[in-house]
Specification:
This protein has about 260 residues and is an all-alpha fold.
Length: about 260
């Protein structure tokens, strides 16, 4: 029976009966995994993804982790509607389970979830734990190609830092240029300080050679000129001038060599 997914049928019926308590439907998912094994659990789990109970939806998502890890069929596609689930526990479980996906399976969905939940610290931290060297490129692509959002630059900076820790040199040029081109001296001092910190981190890491690419040096040159103007204005806010100096300090060794620092 464990090799025949058709025998899951009686368990499927539990998801079609609204009078069955949600705890029983959750147990049905656990029973299905015990009896039929990881290989067939997605057959029953799919029935619970649109269940009225968030507890059942959470259990169904969790039960599909093995299928995601083995890239069975297109599991990410059937999980996509849950990115808009009204219950935060369901979205949180979806984020965590996508971290188990093989390769870049579900990377675009994870990127969407990060955009939608970036301002929630619990969700944001969960997504960071789900990022891997295999899916970071797809997550970055989703964020870069999405519509403009208030938190987008902060999100890109966070993802760049994570990609840098994975050593993903080739995946960083486009998002880094996008982030640098969006930086101007009218930004908040916190953003300018964050940019300086990011540049220092990248320069000191094994990704130092990335900073020599023409597209990046051009973007840095533009920022450098703007920051220099800020430091020279007599009527400029002193806090902003300090942030501009920190930015120039971070750019100098990249543009002109470490001997400048």
């Amino acid at each position: 029976a464990a090799e025949d997914p058709s025998t899951c049928g009686p368990l499927h019926l539990l998801f079609d009966r609204p009078n069955v308590k949600h705890a029983i439907r959750v147990q049905a998912l656990n029973t299905s995994e015990t009896i039929f094994g990881h290989e067939w659990i997605h057959v029953t789990a799919a029935s619970g993804l649109d269940d009225a109970s968030p507890d059942v939806r959470v259990a169904a998502i969790r039960s599909m982790e093995y299928a995601l890890s083995q890239n069975f069929y297109d599991q990410a596609a059937c999980l996509t509607p849950l990115a808009d689930d009204a219950d935060p526990a369901v979205r949180l479980q979806l984020i965590l389970s996508l971290g188990e996906a093989k390769g870049d399976t579900g990377a675009a969905l994870l990127g969407k979830l990060m955009r939608m939940n970036f301002n929630d610290p619990i969700m944001r931290n969960a997504i960071l734990t789900s990022l891997t060297p295999e899916n970071i490129s797809g997550v970055l692509a989703e964020v870069l190609d999405a519509p403009e959002e208030d938190s987008r630059d902060a999100l890109i900076a966070l993802l760049i830092g994570q990609a840098a820790s994975f050593g993903q040199v080739d995946e960083l040029e486009r998002p880094l240029v996008r982030y640098l081109e969006s930086t101007n001296m009218d930004d908040s001092t916190q953003h300018l300080e964050a940019t300086a910190s990011l540049l220092t981190r990248l320069h000191r890491s094994e990704l130092k050679t990335l900073m020599d690419r023409e597209s990046i040096t051009q973007a840095l040159g533009s920022i450098e000129m703007d920051a220099a103007k800020v430091t020279g204005r007599r009527d400029e806010d002193s806090v902003r001038q300090v942030a501009a100096i920190h930015l120039l300090t971070a750019i100098a060794p990249i543009r002109w060599g470490d001997y400048v620092a």
